[in-house]
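Me: Here is a favour to ask of a fellow structure person. Could you put it straight underneath, so I can go through it closely?

Assistant:
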Amino acid sequence: MKRILYIAILFVLAGCSTEPVPQSSSIKLHFGYKYMQPAHDSLYPIYPNPFSRASGDTTFTIRFALKDTITTTVIVQNVLGDAVASFSDSLLLPGFYTGSWNPFASDGTPLNSGFYFVTLRAGDFINSRLVFIQENE
């Protein structure tokens, strides 16, 4: 029930202005709810999943919550463990965060279809989600 409440609050407050969060080259965190205190650290389901450019998808949405001020890393890896995107070593305040990941390689080419792991590391908390990119048709 608490998780549903947090998600509902997240959508209700989506129009609220907050301070910007540091950005990396490929994962951009565009807002956070620093004035809300989550009960625990969480990495929420990533969507759309599966991802298909053919159906008009342009970015994955990554949402997570931090209960304490902590150095945080979000990393995207292929199944071989190679990093393809990251938002790393940023000190973030407690709150809810939403980010977007455009699944392109650093040279601007679309990533191959397949499975990728999105991992959140915040202190002792480590959680991963599996996402799938479908081949364009």
